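Technical note accompanying the year-one report. For the benefit of new consortium partners, we illustrate the data format agreed upon in the data management plan: each record pairs a sequence with a structure-token string. No post-processing was applied to the example shown here.
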Amino acid sequence: MKAFQINRFIFIAFMFMLFAIEQTPCFAQSFYFGADLSYVNEMEDCGAIYKVNNSPVDPYQVFSDSNANLIRLRLWHTPRWYDNLNQGNRYSDFQDVRQSILRAKSAGMDVLLDFHLSDTWADPSHQVAPSAWTSVLGDLPVLQDSLYNYIYSTLEKLANEDLLPELVQIGNETNREILLSQEVNDAGWTLDWNRNGPLFNTAIKAVRDIETTFQSEIKIAIHIAGPADVYWYIDQFVDHGVTDFDIIGISYYWQWHEQTFDEVGSVISTLKQDFPGKEVMIFETAYPWTSTNADAANNILSVAYPGLAPHSPAHQQEWIIGLTQAVIDNGGKGVIYWEPAWVSTGCRTLYGLGSHWDNATFFNSNEELISNGGIRWMTHPYDFILATKEPEDYRNQIEIFQAGEELIIKKNNGSNLNASLTIQYFSLEGKMIHHHSFFPSWEKNTIRILLPEILPGSYMVTLISEDHSTISKMIFKQ
């Protein structure tokens, strides 16, 4: 078939799709069922053989088959402390993460890349900068340059292999200032926004520049530990000019945070209301399936949620299902379980022999999948209707048209379309090549938006409301 015939076929198909979209309001409930599998490569090198019904399996495929659609992976800058552990292999560095992203995408799942911005664990008590940047920590412009180049070059290398993550988080559990010296970190909690704000905005810019260079959408997340603390921190980020992010990620462990599912749900609902346009997700959570310790490494999790004692596979499953339904009911975007494959092996951590999480995995001490445990959480028939108001039909309320290099959105006087809006631009091949989310500022019931810097040609433009109603229009960019 000749090229012009193919293009004509694509154009007709796209026009047919446009007609269908304009005749019927679209609604789709999307939700991330995720797992952090950062330990899998290491555990396999340490001798772990993951099994289902006593047959060896690829754990990535196990999660994909169990309805997981997102894999979270941590990235450390230079984790040289691994050199003196076990076989001396390094993990969660670029090469290890590259391998993990390849495995996740090969199994059909999206990836959330977690930049710890450290050589080791980053959390509310530990935000120490990579040792490679120690000499420039007191020179903010130079530090910003190092940060930008690190994030940009990391994503660029992944993009060149078609391994770009769909989501990126800037820092891990950043309940304090990031990129601190060891001395400042150890001196106690600190949060200087004259330094912290520019660093976050620099990191975000690096991701946005990658989006532009490779014409790929990446959702950016800020990650805070503890539902009770997250509102204050996000409010601080926004007040200090860090606003260009898409997702608010939360760590929630009952053992430390002691907030019920209803209370977590209320936090999510409030965040969505007060920070329009931001999605909210649980980035880390876990619950034990046993009180037994499989090795010499002390188990970290031990406390039972009210009504779910003693620990058992059934209670683990009930706990994560209950939390997920609460997230759904309050408009949350997803839940990620940490770390369901960190099984017990003969390898050491910095703190002990074996795994400190073997009682909270989805596999038993023989690396066999616990079929009646937490793994079933992702296939549970959740009630999304409870959480989601039916989308309004805006076809008679909103009009979209092109005027030269501007996109015009007009509403009638009766429309109540005042929530966050997203505009997406699709090529005729169906690939999204640009997106923009904003809170509408109507002037005489009209919004004027300059068309993005995209190549000349025909595009499908879709306007999406906060309740997922959509309106589409074909435009031509000169």
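Partners are asked to follow this layout when depositing records. The two ends are 28 Å apart (CA to CA).
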